[in-house]
Design brief:
101 residues; alpha+beta; two-stranded antiparallel sheet; 2 strands; elongated
Length: 101
C-alpha cells in the first residue's frame, strides 16, 4: 500500500523527533523514502518551518549537514497524533458487530 504525501511528511517528522539530528541518508533509511523524493519533502518541511537544516563543522574544513525538527514541527506532529487517535476511537465506536450465522 502506498503512503500519501501527508503520511510521508509525518514519517519524516517522526523519525527526526525520535532520533534527533540526522543526516539525509539516515532519514532516508529510517523513513523508507528514496533520496530524490526525500529532498523534496525536506524542502517543503523547511519552507514551513517544521524542520531546520544545520551545518556542522567537521575536521579540516569539512562540513556536514544534518536536519533537526523544530518546536513547530513537534507541535504539528503532536496535533496529528491527537487527531489520529480521536479518529480511531470514533471508528471503533461506529463498527457494527458481525452476526454469526
Amino acid at each position: 500500500m502506498r503512503r500519501s504525501k501527508l503520511e510521508i511528511h509525518l514519517d519524516v517528522l517522526t523519525v527526526l523527533a525520535r532520533h534527533g539530528p540526522l543526516k539525509l541518508t539516515h532519514i532516508m533509511y529510517k523513513a523508507n523514502v528514496n533520496c530524490d523524493a526525500l529532498k523534496q519533502y525536506l524542502d517543503f518541511l523547511i519552507q514551513h518551518n517544521l524542520v531546520e537544516e544545520q551545518t556542522l563543522q567537521k575536521r579540516r574544513h569539512k562540513t556536514g549537514v544534518v536536519y533537526v525538527i523544530t518546536e513547530r514541527g513537534l507541535a504539528v506532529l503532536k496535533y496529528f497524533r491527537e487527531i489520529s487517535s480521536a479518529l480511531q476511537i470514533t471508528e471503533d465506536a461506529q463498527k457494527v458487530p458481525a452476526f454469526l450465522y
